[in-house]
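USER: If only I could read backbone structure tokens as easily as an amino acid sequence. It would mean a lot if you studied the pair and described how this chain folds. Here is the record:
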Amino acid sequence: MANNFTEKANFLWSVADLIRDDLKRGKYQDVILPLTVLRRIDCVLEPTKEQVLNDYNQYKDKLKDLSGILRKASRYAFYNTSPYTFERLLDDPNNLAKNLNAYINGFSENMREVVEKFDFRNTSGKLDQANLL
């Protein structure tokens, strides 16, 4: 377990090293914390992602409020209707910023509200401009 923790800590420091010249030291948390939260949410939703997408596509033109159906499909109080996952975002590196925004917009309102508290759209824009996203 200690080895796994060390690997993760080293990875986080490597991210800090990448952004060092483009962001102030005090702004590292503006990158690391939201990406960590997004990745964790992505992992939690991954097992039910296809079911959520199937239900979304099946009912999006038939029902006004899909939240109950999609929460049930995800097995959580939140869901994501974007076709993207963190892994799928990497399939199109030239459009990463645009696709990341689509991924964030795909979250249910309650989770999108949490993510937006980080002001990550602004940070991701800066990272994109610096070619660090």
In short: DSSP finds eight helices and no strands in the chain. The radius of gyration is 16 Å. The chain has one domain: 26-129.
